[in-house]
Amino acid sequence: MSKIVADSLANPLVDVNYRGTVSLRVKCTDIIQHEEARDEVKIGYEEFKTDVTALFVAAHAGHVDLIRRLLSAGADVNQKLFRGYATTAAAREGHHQVLGMLLKAGASQAACEDALLEACRHGQTKAAELLISSEMTRPGVSVHALVYASCRGFVDIVATLIK
């Protein structure tokens, strides 16, 4: 961890929940169906500008040490942004250790449910397992997650949700 980050987090005047604008890169998939040729799956990345917190960016990037420091400095694990919560970013990107840390830090029911839906949209089986085992998701949300996973063909997630 750089000295600048450590010094900034130690400074009582630094707001660890400050929202700033960044450019995020998110994985996207497109399925192109051809009549007489094989169907095609294109995987790419989309960049967009959005307001985020340091915790959200660290969760998106899977930066465990920085998340640990931000949480100990008082970062709000339940701060909702345009693209969801920090738990949503961790689930979307498949950062299981980060997701576990955020759950232990007190992620709310809303944050966990949002993350479960995102995990099921992106085929993140381990993230879905962590969120279901946290018992922070209502049955109705789990049904929606099951529909997402079923429609996208994520058999492992479907099996996890049916248990």
Automatic annotation (TrEMBL):
Pfam families documented for this protein: Ank_2
ANK repeat ranges, renumbered to this chain: 50-82
Keyword Repeat: yes
Entry keyword set: ANK repeat, Repeat
InterPro entries: Ankyrin_rpt, Ankyrin_rpt-contain_sf, Multifunctional_ANK_Repeat
Classification via PANTHER family: ANKYRIN (PTHR24123:SF139), ANKYRIN REPEAT-CONTAINING (PTHR24123)
Protein name stated in the entry: Ankyrin repeat protein
